Amino acid sequence: MIRLEKVQKAAQRLENIAQKTPLAYAPILSELSGYNIYLKKDNLQVTGSFKLRGAFNKIATLIESGDRRGVVAASAGNHAQGVAFGAKYFKIDATIFMPEATPLNKVQGVKANGANVVLKGSNYDEAYSFAIEYAKEKNLSFVHPFADDEVIAGQGSIFLEIFKEIDNLDAIIVPVGGGGLISGIAVAAKELNPNIKVIGIASAGAPAMANSFKKGRALSTNSVRTIADGIAVKNASEFTLEYILKLVDDILLVCDDEIASGILFLLERQKLLVEGAGAVGVAALLHNKIDLEPNSNVAIILSGGNIDVTMLNLIIEKGLLKSYRKMKLVVTLIDKPGALEEFSHLMREVSANIVHIGYDRTSTDLEFGDAHVTVALETKGEHHQEQIRDILRDNGYLFKEEH
What we know:
Low-confidence stretches: none
Distance between the termini: 49 Å
Strand order of the largest sheet: 1-2-10-7-8-9
CATH architecture of the largest domain: 3-Layer(aba) Sandwich
Helix content: 40-55%
Structural class: alpha/beta
Number of domains: 3
Number of helices: 15
CATH topology of the largest domain: Rossmann fold
Strand content: 15-25%
């Protein structure tokens, strides 16, 4: 296992490469939680993710040893961009294997740095298998996204930046997938201050590392399903688990709905665009998963911001529905002139703004002479939505809600 010195050496290599991303006090989160919350914004890193740190450090050590044959990697996106960036910097070839369902923005980010992208497999683990075989066949160096000491050391550089600004942290909250980030952070944190609690947050849809931590041995899951694609790892790594069992205090789980609320909170209240994997720490905080002493000084790692726009749109839409700021109804009207106008007048009475409307008179579940109006309304909270239901019932309308 590496020591602090290796993390410090990695930080030196990254000195003029990686951004020293902002560490900012978060007053709203602090008030909500009762802790003093600081956000480490590595979503603003050069490639949009902390993964640049470990990938660049690994490639730099290869170059220092005289190995310029080129590199191979497997990644759901962020590690791929870090490897591509490092290979371009040192002017060597890079071939990246990515799952077939990888968001287009991440594929484009890799190609923009000159790497060759091969889309293979339905998830990271399948892409990884193809990449390992390719590296052996071509006699190239494989840059692992987490199970590598130099990668772990590079990821640990993020804690050194935090510690320079706040040396009295009580806890640090870290996203967990393969475990490289939390391993590097834990190495640095525990040597600089053994009393700092290192708490990992994993997705309930990809719980391999959390389960392994609880059982004390590397476990796998049958499948992974989560909006946090950056931490969607099926098989726990024995390599990083050794670090985690020795240095990490706890690993907690958050579900997709909680992750989505974290993304929306950061976007709306903190003005930060953060992907699912990067938002898990805030999600855990918002849903009272973190149990620390009041007024503890807590840093949360926002590990990446490379979210697919389609996914972001879906999260915003669902978030508006869950927070009672949007309401979707299917209302049955009599199909006659003026019926839609009467319905619109009722909505005006309760100050519900119609933002979308559709009119259907041909559905097979309709009685003759009826029509369905599908309507989306801007609303002002739970009480306002109850007012809308009441006025529809009072006026004899049949309706159902869509979620």
